[in-house]
Amino acid sequence: MKGGGKLSASLWEELGFVDRLGLLFHFPRRYEDRTKWQDPFLAEIGSPITLRGEIGETKFSRWRGGRICFEASLIPEGAIDSVRLYWFNMPYLKTYLTTGKEIVVHGKIQSYKQGLKLTHPEFEMIKPGENDFIHLDRITPIYPLSGKVKQRPLRTEMHKLLFDDELKLPEIHPVPDDLVDLSSALRNIHFPENDQALRQARRRLAFDELFCMQTVLTRRRRLVTSMTKQRPERTDSFVKRYLDSLPFEPTEAQQRAFRDIEENLDKSYPMNRLLQGDVGSGKTLVAAYALLLNAERGLDGALMAPTETLAEQHFQNLRVLEEITGIEVILWTASCKPSAPGQGLRPRIYVGTHALFQEGVDLGDLGLGVVDEQHKFGVLQRQNFLKKGNHPDLLVMTATPIPRTLCLTLYGDLDISVLNELPQGRKPIKTVIRKRKDLHKVWDYIRKTMKDGHQAYIIYPLLEESEQSALRSVKEAFAELKAEFGENEVTILHGKMKSDEKSKNMELFKSGQRRVLVATSVIEVGVDVPQATLIVIEHAERFGMAQLHQLRGRVGRSIEQSYCVLVSDVKSDESKERLEVLEQTTDGFVIAEEDFRLRGPGDVVGVQQSGLPRLRLAQVSQDMELLSIARREAEILLDEDPHLKNHPELRKRLSHFGMELGPEVAN
Ligand code: ADP
Ligand code: MG
To answer: What does the alpha-carbon distance between residue 606 and residue 615 come to, in Å, rounded to a whole number?
Structure first.
């Protein structure tokens, strides 16, 4: 690489780029406007700020808990007074940040009793006279760094690549007319001339990113449709027998999903379908329908659930099929493996956890796999599964509400069915927020619920930082609640329990022998106990909105009125607002959108599920029209050149965006 040298070698190693262009697709994570310096004393407290100045005196101080703090005063350019800078546990800073040195710092401006301060600001040393036009006096890019790569040398390298030589970049795919050309986009995404140029650059590169993504997705889908699956004729009427045995009619939405699935199963290529339905919409019935339709052809099927508890629940539910249809239903989890799987003449339905889809597990004559709560699984597991049997059909189910447009981006390779209605007669769950001091009233309410013959969940958070203490709290609560409601009324469920103990306690609750279940969020997905009509969630502020919605979905599963009590002493406006949204609506879509609004972009629901790298530039909310153009163009391209044989440059571009085209041929 021209002008490479030492830095480039380490960059290559650290950042893993394959070629020169690859580096240019390492985009800034933010920018600092270093053309004009703000006066910190005029800035709003709490807002991010960039300051340039000279370091005054420095010292070490010791703080509570024994933390060592390196302190420096900074006299910012254009300010009337100095501000203080604090860095904890970074004593080595003393060798760089000496009195008289010039630096640029970036952080949130805070006030303290003697004035203004920045805690742990990012900083960059200024070396007098050195390339000011790259690092200062401009909108300056700040890169995500890893390993030993440093901000300034990386920026210098980028600048060299972009401006020292003539930057000749061929357009390798069609681009809408109103977008700027690639060279100009790359120059401005790294070193923006102004805000508008930056916006245009981002838009152009977002298109490229979406185009790459759609190429991958469209090709994936075509690979599936080019496969040929062998399926025997249908010889039985399991579905009819099963539906006739149910005490209820399938909803319109469920019937639509049935039809979608039947159509897919009749095709010559494998089904690849996503079933999306809010909690309680009755996805399990659709799964059972698909499994039975598959069994009518004499083929085996598999249903994969994310937890043992859920696998067991599905197993218990599907067991009635044995009587009605003669199909064999087999439970297969880490702690429960069948001794002689794959024997016998009847079609089988395997129900299990991911243990089921591991390599080496023989699922017999597998014709269909169903993945429940698929957001809990990685794409790898999905793909592992697809290697089994004879190009099995695949149905993945999720309660994650994903707006349709977003679905297209993320699941461009899947067909989609939506359960957009709840079974008849369901009353919306009533949700209230209560303070901890009012818990006794909540307990009274639990007593009333029990008296009415219904059941209640009480949920405690499982803290990621300290699982231990959360465990103690659920265990402590267990003891207290037994005292409160009676030894024989309360049972417990948490992730650290042995599986046989878990299933025993779950059974106690399910059968109504224990009417209160104290649990951690292990019951978040899927658990279905219709006679439970109350859920109390302690420390509700510790849960995300989507999770609260899922938890709440454990009730409201019958025609009885159900209730959800969010117990929280939150003070912060944001947390309060999140809980209030749940109080106001039970619509999963609204909650997802509010969640998105309150947390801002970033990790949009379900992005990791798609198996594609996170989008770096494109934003689902604002680039929708680019997305549909990208999708169309990708289709046209793949019509002409299905394996991108004549487009080696485009293959490279995919890798620049961290994407891969995947296998060459189907079958
Ligand atoms: P989820 O979509 O959250 O997985 P489930 O499949 O667990 O929902 O269904 C929730 C409850 O609704 C279950 O008790 C199920 O038996 C019941 N159910 C499913 N479909 C219907 C229907 N069409 N009418 C009445 N109840 C139904
Ligand atoms: Mg479910």
So the answer is: 12
